[in-house]
Amino acid sequence: MKPRLLIIEDDENLRTQMKWALAQDYEIFMAEDRLSALKVVKEERPTVAILDLGLPPRQDEAVEGFSALAHMLEEDALIKVIIITGHDEREYALQAINEGAYDFFCKPVQIDELKIVLHRAFYLSQLEREHGELQQLLSKESFEGMLGTSPQMQEVFTLIRKVATTNAPVLIVGENGTGKELAARAIYRQGARKEHPFVVINCGAIPETLLESELFGHEKGAFTGAHIQRKGRIEAAQGGTLFLDEVGELSPTLQVKLLRFLQEHRIERVGGREEIFVDSRVIAATNTDLEQGMREGRFREDLYYRLGVVVISLPPLRDREGDIPHLAKVLLQRYASESKKKITAFAPQALRALETHSWPGNVRELENRIKRAVIMADGPLVGPADIELASSYAKYEGRSLKEAREALERDFIQRSLAKNKGNITKAAAELNVSRPTLYELMEKLGIDKK
Ligand SMILES: Nc1ncnc2c1ncn2[C@@H]1O[C@H](COP(=O)(O)OP(=O)(O)OP(=O)(O)O)[C@@H](O)[C@H]1O
Ligand SMILES: [Mg+2]
Q1: Ligand 1, residues 319, 364, 370, 371: which to mutate, most atoms within 8 A of Cβ?
Q2: φ, ψ of residue 414 in degrees (nearest 5)
Q3: If we measure between CA atoms, which residue out of 299, 282, 212 comes closest to residue 244?
Q4: Which phi and psi angles does 166 have, rounded to 5°?
Q5: Closest-CA residue to 15 (of 84, 75, 74, 61)
Q6: Which residues contact 215 (CB under 8 A, 6 or more apart)?
Q7: How far apart are CA 423 and CA 428, in angstroms?
C-alpha cells in the first residue's frame, strides 16, 4: 500500500502537475477547497496534506487556508500539513507553522524539493504513530505497577479506577500473592486522598492483646507499660486511607470495635473516655473465605457488609489468560537489568513449564522464581531448572508414548520404594496395586528392590 497524500490546490494546472510528479510514490487524493479537503481527511485519512492557503471563494487571502488547517488538525492531530504560499506571503507561512503546519513552500513549486520534504513528513508521521501505539500498549499493560493484559486483570483495573474516586470501603479478596496490597495502593494513588497518608496494618501479624492498642491507640496508664499516650493506626490515617490487611484474622471483640468505627467514624483510645472523630477511607484485604467464616460464626456479617461495599476479587495467576508469559518476560527484563546480567529470554521448555505450573503462590511465587533464575542462569537463556520447574516433560521429549509411560512408572515406583525404605508391602499399598503386581512391574522395568 502506498502512503496517502492529499493535495489541496485550486489552481488546476498546478494540481495536475503535482499529481503527475508524485503519483508513482503516493496514493493521491485531490481537493480544491476547504470543505472537499475536510471530507477527504475524514473519509480517507491521508497521512500528509499539501495545502494552498489561498482557496476559493477568497483566493487572494489566506483565511480559507487557515480555517482548513485548523479543521484538519482538529480531525486528525497527527496529520502533517505542508503549506504552499505565494512568494510575497512568507509571514502567512510562518503563522501557519505557528498554528500547527509541518512545513511550507513558496511558489513556484520545485518538485524535487517537494519530494524531499514529503519524504521527511511521511517518515516523521510514521514514527509518531508508532510511538503513540507503543505508549498506548504500555499504559494498557501496566496500571499503577500492576501488570496484566488478560481480560480478567483489565476488568480489575477498570473497577479500581471506578472505586478510587469514591470513599466507599473496599474489600479485596484473593489467594496469597495475587496482588491485594498492590491493588490497595493503586486505589489509594488513583484517589483524591493521595496527598494524605496510606496506613497499613496487618491484623494477622500482631498478637490480639497488642492489636487493639495498635489500631485504636491508648492513653497514658491504660495498662501496665502504657507510660505515654499513643495514637493508633486508625488515627494516623486521619484524612487518608487505612489498609486493614488480613482482616479475617480479627478477634470477635475487635470486630465489634472496628464495626463501630466504620459506622460512626469515631474511636476511643484504650483507657480513654474521649471520642475521636476520624475521617479515613478503609480498604481491607483477606485471603480467607469470609463467607465461610460468617457461616461458621467466626466473622460478623454486619462487619462483612460494611467492609465490602465494593468487593474486588483478584483472580489466581493460573486463571489470567496470557499473563504468565507476559509477566515472566517483563520481570525477567527487570531483574536481569538490575543485576546487569545479559539474560535475554526463556528457553521454550522453560516457558512451557511456566505455563503448566499451577502457581499456588501466584505473582509472588513467579517473582521469586524469576529472581532465582536470574541468579542461577549461566547463559543468555533461562532454562526450566533455573526456575526450579524442570518440567517432568523434559525427560520424555523425543520418546514414544510407551517409553514415556514406562519412564514415568519407573520413577513413580522407585520414589515409593525409596520413601518406604524398600518395603514392598507398604509401597504396594501406597501405589494401590497388589504385591504380585508390584513385583511384576519391577521385574519388567528393571527395578532393583534397593
Ligand atoms: N499484577 C501484578 N503485576 C506485577 N507485580 C505484581 C502483580 N501482582 C502482584 N505483584 C507482586 O507480587 C508480590 C505480591 O503482591 P502483594 O503483596 O500485593 O500480594 P498479596 O495478595 O497482598 O499477597 P498476600 O496474600 O501474601 O498478602 C509483590 O511483590 C507485588 O509487587
Ligand atoms: Mg498482602
Answers
A1: 364
A2: -60, -40
A3: 282
A4: -105, 180
A5: 84
A6: 201, 232, 233, 234, 254, 257, 258
A7: 9
Residues 6+ apart with CB under 8 A from 318: 324, 357, 358, 359
Helix H or strand E encompassing 369: helix 362-376
Residue 435's pLDDT is 93
Q: Rounded to an integer, what distance in angstroms lies between the CA atom of residue 1 and that of residue 378?
A: 46
Residue 162's Cβ-side half-sphere holds a number of Cα atoms within 13 Å equal to 10
**Long-range pairs of 141-144 with CB within 8 A, sequence gap ≥ 24:** 141/326, 143/186, 144/182, 144/185, 144/186, 144/189, 144/190
CB atoms < 10 A from the CB of 341, how many? 14
| Closest to 376 in 3D by CA, of 365, 388, 366 | 388
Residues of the chain scoring pLDDT < 70: 134-141, 390-395, 450
181 lines ligand 1 (CB under 6 A): yes
Residue 61, all three cell numbers: 487571502
pLDDT at 44: 94
Q: Where are the beta strands (DSSP E) in 167-253?
A: 170-173, 198-202, 217-218, 230-231, 241-245
| pLDDT number for residue 343 | 83
Task: Outline where DSSP puts E strands in 366-418.
Answer: 381-382
Scanning 45-198, the segments in alpha helix (DSSP H) are 63-75, 90-98, 111-141, 151-164, 180-190
Ligand 1 atom nearest to CA at 148: 1
Record the cell numbers describing residue 15, joined without a space.
494540481
* Dihedral sign of CA atoms 270, 274, 275, 278 in order: negative
User: How many C-beta atoms surround the C-beta of residue 57 within 10 A?
Assistant: 9
Cis peptide before 57 (omega within 30 of 0): yes
Q: So what's the pLDDT on residue 136?
A: 66
Of 391, 315, 316, which is closest to residue 346 (Cα–Cα)? 391
| Cα 42 versus chain centre, distance | 33
Output the pTM of the full model: 0.63
The number of angstroms, rounded, from the C-alpha of 247 to the middle of its chain's C-alpha atoms is: 26
In this structure, which residues have their CB less than 5 angstroms from ion ligand 2?
180-181
Q: For residue 83, what is the enclosing H or E element?
A: strand 80-85
543468555: which residue's cell?
380
Q: How many residues does the chain have?
A: 450
Rounded to the nearest angstrom, the distance between the alpha carbon of 198 and the centre of ligand 2 is: 15
Give phi and psi for 266, each to the nearest 5: -125, 145
Task: Look at residue 105 in the predicted model and tell me its pLDDT.
Answer: 87
